[in-house]
Amino acid sequence: MKTITENLQTPVREECDVVVCGGGTAGFIAAVAAGRAGAKTILIERFGYIGGSMINGAGPLHSFFNLYKAFPGVEPKQVIRGIPGELIERMQASGNSYGHLEQDKGGNYDSRITLMDWEEFKDLAFTMLEEAGVKVLLHTMVAGAVMDGDQLTGVIIEGKSGREAILAKTVIDTTGDGDVAAFAGAPFIKKHETTTVGFPFGMTGVDMTRLVEFLREHDMINQIIEGDKGSETDHVIRLGFELKKLPEFKEFMEKEGIWGPLGFSYHEGNFNYINGCALKSVDATDTQIFSEAEIKLRHQAMTLAHMLKEHVPGFEKAYVSWTPASIGVRYTRVVECEHDMSLEEIVNGARFDDEVMLYGFHDCAPRIMIKDGGYYGIPYRALIPKKVEGLLVAGRLITSEWDAHMSTRNTASCMAQGQAVGVAAALAAREGVLVRNLDTDLLRKELLKQKVYLGD
To answer: Is domain 12-192+332-449 in CATH 3.40.800.10, yes or no?
Structure first.
């Protein structure tokens, strides 16, 4: 490969206690938590909004609760609380979330789902960051690491102002792809070959009532929630169905790797989110491969939308009104941390002395479920990378075993992980210690003050 040599002097734009790299759900919550805990905090985000995969492809929030409907007699337990819980409460209070809705069908996959208006969320997210005193840099990419031996002391960023540095006592990597960890030399493995990337889309002008009637006639529905969304006729909120049962779709879907679809309808006449398009084994850390996958998935999504209009009653007058800013990535780099969650720990509800959150959902349910509708803990050390100081990680870049990752990577889990690392980074700055050496009892006490649920 041909190379060039550069001799750079990079201006330091900011110095702070905590810099959070990646404004998805983990990074957003981490920044709010750090700011509320008294740290001077900066959040870096590559897009022009906050929320990452949650509003760019992940759809409804799963798993604020345990999977109680799969186990008769088990009571519902909200295990994700703290700042994520506050977010939903504030969205619901403003009329922009239906709150935590119980599944009418499909409750052995996820007993409750949580929906919100994405555009309203974007506004509230910025409000919460402002309230916490967090400085936000949008349209900005992490381009390198500032190292002092094995200690990460800041990051190089690239934005409209060019190449700059931000120095920090602690860096939090919530990029999803482990970009900061890789730049800093933390050990990692790549796992993209074990799963798919996706590309959901939304359609407006869908007769949801007629659609559901057709699907019921053909016994195609596998998940549904109906409720009041301000319409006299349209009461469909959550909808998943087996499209392959229609011969017009079977060959196309199997050839392309399309599944489902599974989606939701937040507003009358809108199938706001339709998930099912997919490609296997895409390395989203490779620029060319990432680009080619996005082009293929955009073609795939539009073809599927046209087929729905042609063959499925209810879609006759519909049109595509939303596509995500980029493809939905589940798995790329996995950062080696001081503890790697195993499937055995997850399904058996393992608990840890240094756990910083609890979680009760697995994305492969009902095939893989947590024992007795319970929940498990994620320890603080699962968020501390090996061989690099001054760095914490959270989100889909932890957990190397695919079956285990299918639990820890989900959005509500990422939110709770974010609150844990945000508080930890702020406390380490206040106490003058490396995050690796932070007193976990002190961390857990502060998390409890921020209303995180750590058990009864």
So the answer is: no
